Amino acid sequence: MLGFADERMGRPMRLVYPSRKQRQKLEAWLGLCCEVYNAALDERKSAYRMAGVSLSYEHQCAELPACKQVCPALNEVPSQVLQDVVKRVDRAFDDFFRRVEQGHKPGYPRFKSRFRYDSLTFKQYGNSFNILPASKKNKATLVLAKLGHVKMVMHRAIKGTPKTAIVKRTPTGKWFVSISVEMEGEDIISKRLPVSEEAVGIDVGLKTFAYLSWGKRLPIRAFLRAEEAALARAGRKLSKAPQGSKQRAKKRKVVARVHERIGNRRKNFIEQEVRHLVKQFGLLAVEALVVRNMVKNPKLAKSIADASWSMFFTRLQAKAEEAGRQVVRVNPAYTSQTCSACGHRQQMPLSVRIYECSQCGLVIHRDHNGSLNILSDGLQAVGRHSRVIPEAPGL
Length: 395
Description:
By secondary structure, this protein is of the alpha+beta class. It has helices at 20-51, 57-62, 64-70, 79-102, 185-190, 223-226, 228-240, 246-280, 291-294, 301-307, 309-323, 366-381; strands at 13-17, 119-122, 129-132, 141-144, 148-152, 161-169, 175-182, 199-204, 208-212, 217-219, 283-287, 326-330, 354-356, 363-365. It folds into 2 domains: 7-185, no CATH class; 199-222 and 261-381, Nucleotidyltransferase, domain 5, CATH 3.30.420. It is built from 12 helices and 14 strands. The strands form 3 sheets. A 7-stranded antiparallel beta sheet has the order 2-6-7-1-5-4-3. Strands 10-9-8-11-12 form a 5-stranded mixed beta sheet. It is globular and about 80 Å long. It comes from Ktedonobacter racemifer DSM 44963. This is Putative transposase IS891/IS1136/IS1341 family.
């Protein structure tokens, strides 16, 4: 099993402390890689527009030695890092054509600003990068080609065989490394938890972050709302700073720190809740929500984005697979409008928070009722339970 070196997939991001000269070198590499990315993108666009030719990754990689002769500064950048820059352009076009075939919004590849190109990929362990474990005298060290030894915070031991390392610069000026590893089957099985027959239905919302089918509520944490005043204050100071000045650069970093604080708190909250759920339940039933469509609602967009349902579902799926648990996605239609006791369906506006069944007299919280229906549909999907709910006419 190959782990993905991607923060969104929850791979551990290890903090590194490059020296001042190393930081300057990394910054210079990012600038050169950004130029190579834009040049490769421009070459592909021009070749197709002028000659109708689609350039390949192999063709553009073969041009890199000639590029180094034209721009000697590229010799300072490791070859494999430059090859990955060309690979990113190739992936951008592959994703573009895939979205066109699937009928999604295409999103044609665009040129990158030097402020938005913030990562370098070292793709061969033992060649372009290495890891020296901590000893009694020295801390853990990351060894990068043409850069040297960089101090690294090894907050957990690396299990498996390292494959690639992505060195990333955050908007606040911090440096992290994300290491993907290849794990053997025994290592994967060792991470799995004891078998659990318990199941739970999870109904996410905006009044409470999630309502569990056994009655527990997970409180909503509006991290963005809590920091809106600090964010607005920092934004006003940034807008008043002169363009291109050192003062503006400092104010921009202040705004980035506020956003980083919001993201860290949100991620910490979701990681803790996901850990508790995966540890306790063997089957987790959730709604198959299309969040990207829901945020188009102008009245609820900020609250939905602040709740981070997509991050929650992604982390829940990833952690459940790692622990040997099962996540079932069910159709979210009418889960809150259907009685969890008798199956009667009745229309309810979102403002009504208590479900009162006109058929069997059940009185229950709307979200609790929805979580019970989600659990029932999830159990039915895996063959552990079956319940037929008649459809009400006119709904």
